[in-house]
Each structure stands twice: as C-alpha cells, then as structure tokens.
Predict the structure.
Amino acid sequence: MINDKMGVKELPAAGVITEHGNSEQFNTGEWRNRKPKHLLDKCKHCMMCVPVCPDCAIIHSEEDKMCGFDYSKCKGCGVCSAVCPFKAIEMVDEDCEVDE
Ligand code: SF4
Ligand code: SF4
C-alpha cells in the first residue's frame, strides 16, 4: 500500500495501480481548474452521479441524498455533470464561490 511515509524509491513505477479504489488516499483536487456546483433545486437525488465519480468525491447521506462534493478529492473532470439527467451539476471556474 502507498502511504505518505514512503520515500520516492519505494513508490511503484508511474501508471501501476497497486490496489483498486485507492483514489480516496490522495487529495486529487489540488490540480483542478474547474469544479462542479450542485444545483440543489434541480437535484432529484437519483444517485446516478455517485458511481461514476472516479475520485469518490460525491458526498451522499445514508438515506441516499446527494449532499455535495468533497473538493479535496474532486479533480474537476466533469463526468458527474455529464451524466446528471436533471442538469443539477454545473461545471464552474475554480474561483467561483460555491457552498461547501
Ligand atoms: S445525478 Fe443529478 S439529480 Fe441525480 S443525484 Fe446527482 S446531482 Fe442529483
Ligand atoms: S467533477 Fe464530478 S465526477 Fe469528476 S471528480 Fe469531481 S465530483 Fe467526481
């Protein structure tokens, strides 16, 4: 397992996935220039956006209510916005203010 105590010589070669689902270990939101904005008035909580996020960055409650984004993980790829059938996720510039 990769962790923040490892030196550069201990890391696997670039592009090698040592374990699945490891995006939660990294703050992939550090290099984003656009981000998703949740439009709550349009959201039907269908949960279609949740499984497509490659970084597990969509926050939802145990009652399956979409609650917004973990911006430390979200890399701004826009997949969630593309799949939302209700146009409830708008991609905006990184410096745009959003509720977090
Ligand atoms: S896909 Fe759209 S409508 Fe469905 S939970 Fe996500 S934001 Fe809400
Ligand atoms: S833009 Fe959407 S799908 Fe892409 S990383 Fe952020 S929350 Fe996940």
User: Anything to note?
Assistant: The radius of gyration is 15 Å. The pocket of iron/sulfur cluster (ligand 1) is lined by residues 43-49, 66, 84, 86, 88-89 (CB under 6 Å). Strands lie at 34-38, 58-60, 66-69, 89-93.
